[in-house]
Amino acid sequence: MPALGKLVQIEARLFLRDPMSFTIGLLLPSVILLGLGAIPALREPSPDMGGQRFIDYFAPSALVMAVAVVGLTNLPAVLATYRERGVLRRMRTTPVHPAKLLLAQMIVNLAAALASAVLVVVSGKLVFDVPMPQRPIGFAIAFVLGISSVFAIGMLVAAVAPTSRAASGLTTVLFMSVMFFGGVYLPRFMLPDAIARVGDYVPPGVQSLLDAWTGTAPAAAPLAVMAATAIAAGTLAARIFKWE
Amino acid sequence: MAIIEVRDLVKDYGSMRAVDGISFEVEEGEIFGILGPNGAGKTTTVECIEGLRSRDGGSVRVMGLDPERDGPELKQVLGIQLQESRLPDRIRVGEALDLYASFYRSPANTDRLIEKLGLERKRKTPFGKLSGGQQQRLSIALALVGNPRVAVLDELTTGLDPQARRDTWDLIEQVRNSGVTIILVTHFMDEAERLCDRIAVVDTGKIVALDTPAGLTARVSEEQRVRFRPSAAFADALLLDLPEVARVERSGPHVVVTGDGNVLQAVASVLARNQIVAAELRVEQVSLDDAFVALTGKSLEH
Lengths: 244, 302
Prior knowledge:
The complex is a heterodimer of chains A (244) and B (302).
Chain A: H1 2-17, H2 19-37, H3 54-84, H4 87-92, H5 99-128, H6 136-160, H7 164-181, H8 193-201, H9 206-214, H10 220-240
Helix pairs in contact in A: 1-5, 2-3, 2-5, 3-5, 3-6, 3-7, 3-9, 6-9, 6-10
Chain B: E1 2-13, E2 16-27, E3 31-35, H1 42-50, E4 57-62, H2 71-77, E5 78-81, H3 93-101, H4 110-116, H5 132-144, E6 150-154, H6 162-177, E7 181-186, H7 189-195, E8 198-203, E9 206-211, H8 213-220, E10 224-230, H9 237-240, E11 245-251, E12 254-259, H10 263-273, E13 278-285, H11 288-296
Parallel strand pairs in B: 3-7, 3-8, 5-6, 6-7
Antiparallel strand pairs in B: 1-2, 1-4, 8-9, 10-12, 10-13, 11-12
Helix pairs in contact in B: 8-11
GO molecular function (chain B): ATP binding; ATP hydrolysis activity
Subcellular location (chain B): Cell membrane
Membrane topology (chain B): Peripheral membrane protein
């Protein structure tokens, strides 16, 4: 599929050329993890976190951030801008349907989120000896379902937002919620229990990531919710996506 | 055989009928103009031809293809330049052309295209850093990168400075000379007059006239006016006796003679016989502008 390959290549270059998407999308989550880890107290085991170190406890939240920054801010913003500026419309004048451009954008952004997540895991391991995910398969399932649900929501915003301003307004609210429930702003042990439990079901499902990372099998219900969210939001986005 | 056939095309937007029974044919190798005021239905008409919009009635064939049924196939042979369509700011000229070339089965040579459009030195320049004229040229290049047989160009020179407009016109003539049939949507009279073989004048969703530029002006009036300052006095009767002359008026030192298409030759030979020199001679013809106002009752906004 030469057209799709070419689209992925160009969209990847545009992603890397944009200093905002490059630094915030790719590097920020690792930088924050490393910054927090530089504080000695956060590298000590603490009874608040069941004897874990804060840095181990926070690592999955850095993953939430990696996924959310790319899937909820970059992806919808780029697509809404493409619609607003007539990039999608111009593609409609060619034999290649603009859905291929959407697909290319998803591939590039998924790769970016994945790269950002790998950076978090590897830098945590190398610098602070944060253990690698203990249940690799459970972790992979939780991560794939989590990233799918967040990206599907991002696509839904891109599908309906009439302008890039509207898209950024909507995504800011969603992004802040995901970050809050994902324990990025406040560590989750400081949240009321009810809110922390709600957070288990908010994409991308930080508790599932934490469980699988630290060696517990992730619970089925939150994973099912992530899968359902991904399918529902993704289907709806595909149905109502406006090309112009 | 006509390369484009449009019959009784109808398009409604809600209760508003934007295109109301338009029919025309475009011959291969022609530059066919669609001229009309803003909101006349020009863009909607070409969007139905391009397959970007579904029609509510009538039939459209482009090279025998139905734009609604054979969309992807049609787009292999149809180049489309849209008004108001941009690219990502950071994409470079060369990248955009390579990308769009990859969408077609038999694309044009992008190096030659870049050269033809005078963008050689801009190959590495991002879209956002191009001037308006350069962006427009890139947009034309993207419409031509698939080696189309038919090109539809919508409001091609809107927003360009006069030099860029003339350069663009030259380019369009080159494209036609290479065998591409062109539909040109415009609300500029001078552009239509300069480029088009035939013009459909569209107003409120209907074609009000379809003719060559000369035919359109002739349809309104065959009248010509000749204005000059005579070197010696003469009686009006000298000219009024000519069958070609309808009226003779004087304004200050000038004489204004109105008559049919041959009035200039008739007046010039009579003056020469009487050793009168016509200084500051000017011929005023009915312009396409006048024709447009007569046909639609509106003037074009510039």
